[in-house]
Amino acid sequence: MAVSLAIGILCVLGAGVAAQWCAWRFRLPAIVLLFALGLVFGPGLGILHPSAAIGPLFRPAVSLAVAIIVFEGGLALDFRQWRAAGEGVLRLTVVALPINWGLGACAAHYVGHLDWGTALLFGSIIVVTGPTVVLPLLRHTKLHPKAAAFLRWEAILNDPVGAILATLVLEVLLAHSNYGPERFFAETAPHMIVATLLAIVIGMAPAYLVRFLFERDLMSELLKTPMLIAMALVVFTGCNLIMDGAGLMAATVFGMALANLRVPGMAELRRIKESLVVLVVSALFILLTADLQRGVLERLSLPIIGLTLAVLFVVRPLCIFLATLGSSLTWQERVFLGWIAPRGIVAAAVAGVAGLRLKEAGFGSADLITPAIFAVIAATMILHGFSLRPLARKLKLTLSDERALAIVGASPWSMDLARCLHEAEVPVLLVDTYSGALAGAARAGIPTLRAEVLSQEGEESLEERPADYLIAATPDAIYNGMVCAHLTPYFGRQRVFQVSPGVSRLDLYRGLSRDARGKVLGDPAWNFGLIERLFGQGWRFVALTVTEADAPGFEHEQGNRLIFLSVRRGTAIWIRSAEDAAPAGIAPGDIVVALLPPLPTEASDHDDPTTAVT
């Protein structure tokens, strides 16, 4: 028992996190890797048998994990983003859903050879585009904010709505089979309407309680995250007792309410939950895929394969075309949304339960529900996972693939650094709170952003114009440290830099804590005053392309050259820091940005940067 448990933990958690790392490192769809691991550990090698090992608790445990995922997804649904892409989101969630259901049911009946009852259930399940698949894909792709909002809102909102629709269809079929339609309209339908309204109310009420407790400092910081997760699970479980599927809606509404009530401190808590969700998603995908029986795979007949192709190439594209007729969406957005619709955990979980109940009720083709849904999930995850980025790039719905740098603080020398990068065709964004400081950069065509990056509005504005690295370059060392600490979860600790606060303030014990600041830009002696003084003496930033002859030892200063960073096209930006354990080497073809003194005819007496410090 202990050995099998250890093997299970190794396969699920160890391999899951390893797959997430590989996906991040090599920019691959993590979901596809997790799905493949589940097939290998389950039907392939027979190492994992989750439902047999865990028993009747397996499905409830999966349901609770899904509740955490949809709750965290609800936290990302800010109504201000809805206003930015409102018409498209409304059409995808209200208009497209019934069309998708009808077309999916017709395809299941005429192509997959399912009876009408089972076909209607199949159509109701495939309307779900799971956030467990969509959100990880969006994290690895720099989509335009509008296109990303379409996919995010559709996935998160359709998840509970699709689950409730599938429950409704299932109850109608069972009621018609056992009692006739009269009982459904007299009892089941009113119960579902009341349960849906209760789910919305029950989801919103705890959010107001959370805001009351947080704003009045009535909750310990240590308890905030456990309390939110516990409340999400309680809301989910309570509403599921009222009606199957209502718990997903309540958990989503709870997350949405928290996101839009502007509860203080939610940004930090949301990042903690995002990390938890990565682990939960990794485990769930491996477990659910590993739980597939080989008999399910053996029932993948030609009609099921034909049905999968019909869903991919007919149902979804035609649904989006009809739902967006007369809308303001561009043809590129319509083509993109018509193809990208990966299904995930909720579809698999609903199919397993619903298929079993239909089979017990005597529906002839009910045993084909699970393989049919599995085929759609596998095909959409693989095809959509690998094609999302190339298709978005082809349709010009992505931002630049080149690594981008944000510079906070528009001083004369930081503006010159931005100009140098811009002229070298390196994506750069200059950020400041004062429009006058940005005016010169804007006239030169350099992208600018007027915002306070420590505010929620500023952080959201920065997310709409994503950068990969950040340099805080204001004269205030404390403010620079605050910017770096605040944006570390967004950029990563190794990608936020600040101008040195001075050698004396970098003492590990008495100086600025490393957790409260970014990495030092350049050497500790390169403080703001030194760079400003050199710039005043005529030093300027220059972009140099490294040749084969120059590459060896180029990263070391030669003469009075101060190297700040180097750029490797399409790969990375290396920003020099004395705190790097292993500085990156410079290769031929790299672009090096260095601060150089004026030409000899223009040089002052202070050519040596070390003598410029008083």
TrEMBL record:
Residues 23-394 form the Cation/H+ exchanger transmembrane domain. GO terms for biological process: proton transmembrane transport. Its main location: membrane. PANTHER family: NA(+)/H(+) ANTIPORTER 1, NA(+)_H(+) ANTIPORTER 2-RELATED. The keyword Transmembrane applies. This is Sodium:proton antiporter. Pfam families: Na_H_Exchanger. The chain crosses the membrane at residues 6-24, 31-51, 57-77, 89-110, 116-138, 190-210, 275-292, 304-323, 335-356, 368-386. It comes from Ameyamaea chiangmaiensis. It is a multi-pass membrane protein. It is found in: Cell membrane. InterPro entries: Cation/H_exchanger_TM (IPR006153), Na+/solute_symporter_sf (IPR038770), NAD(P)-bd_dom_sf (IPR036291). GO terms for molecular function: antiporter activity. Keywords: Antiport, Cell membrane, Ion transport, Membrane, Transmembrane, Transmembrane helix, Transport. One of its GO terms (cellular component) is plasma membrane.
